[in-house]
Amino acid sequence: MSWWQSSSWISSLLAPTPLAIGVTLIVAVVIPLLLHFTVYRSTSTTGLPSFLILGPSNSGKTSLLTSFERGLPTATHTSQQPLVVEISLPITNGDASSKYRSANDPTSQVHRRVLLIDTPGHGKLRHYALDNLIKPQRLKGIIFVVDAANVTPDTTGLKEAAEYLHDILLTLQKRATTAKTSRASSEVPVLIAANKLDLFTALPATLIKSALEKEITSVRKSRSKGLLDSGIAMNDADSGDDKDWLGDGGEGTFEFSQLEEVNITVTVVGGNVIGAEPSITKWWDWIGSVL
After folding, report:
1. CA-to-CA distance for 291 and 95, rounded, in angstroms?
2. Which of 250, 99, 116 is nearest to 170 (CA)?
3. Which of 11, 32, 115, 253 is the most buried (most CB within 10 A)?
4. What is the CA 223 to chain-centroid distance, rounded?
């Protein structure tokens, strides 16, 4: 039977029969819907700007995540794997470009969507955070959460936070210095969110900044001593594109301002996720300022 004959299956599909109408509907409606839900949605999610939430265990990272997502913190437990949620920036906390828009601009009333990636703080699980730093997906900033009541001088809490922060900043520094281009988009600002500021024993943000800088100085000194003990001189460690120490020269007192040379800005802002009067507005403001 030839294809042009009226009784052939091709002629049946092209004829105005129920079968032909059904096939046409499938092609015209079902396939576009499948493409929308499989391709468009996955692309739009991965294309959102993202913020990485880091910090030692029990600093309040997951509570902060749920506060951003739902408006109120919920009961949490120690994270064992990363948690990714999509949130909307409140209209009252517009992004940085909003200041150039008219108050009557309808786009100023649209929520800006971002992704938050919460990573475990346990030492054995911090590779999740490093993986997101090495291969970032539209990474716009890092939120490093610390317990403001557990970073007082000469405590294990301060040492743990400083060591972790040192490694994160060093990874960002290497990422910036080894980049093939010097585009401004490679800048990754860091917010040190001093959480639990409502507690009586909590340090204010300015003292936390000083305490972390001082402790990171000690961490950098001990790491440099380790290089020297292994027979690697500081000049040899800097012979390639990567620096094996953090900041300017690797000697003397460390300050966060030293990282501005490689477009890494560090800001310390206090607040509290839980308590009688939770306060996370300034952290929302920071997210909006870097979008």
Report:
1. 5
2. 250
3. 115
4. 26
In the chain, % helix, strand, coil (3-state, to 5) comes to: 45, 15, 40
What CA–CA distance (Å, rounded) separates 85 from 40?
Answer: 18
Contacts for 16 with CB less than 8 Å, ≥ 6 apart: none
Q: In what order do the strands lie in the sheet with 190-195?
A: 83-89, 112-118, 50-54, 139-147, 190-195, 266-270
Residue range 156-205, pLDDT digits in tens: 999 999 999 999 999 999 888 876 554 544 688 999 999 999 999 999 99
203: amino acid identity, one letter: L
Query: What is the rounded distance in angstroms from the CA atom of residue 45 to the CA atom of residue 53?
Result: 18
Report residue 18 as tokens.
């129920």
Please provide residue 190's backbone torsions phi and psi, each rounded to the nearest 5 degrees.
-125, 130
Residue 65: HSE in the Cβ half-sphere, 13 Å Cα cutoff: 27
Locate tokens 């380790």: which residue? 226
Give the tens place of pLDDT for each residue, 132-161. 777 766 889 999 999 999 999 888 999 999
Total Cβ atoms within 10 A of residue 30: 10
- In this prediction the pTM is 0.74
Residue 197, CB-side half-sphere exposure with 13 Å CA sphere? 21
DSSP code string of 76-105: ----SS-EEEEEEE-TTS--GGGGGS-TT-
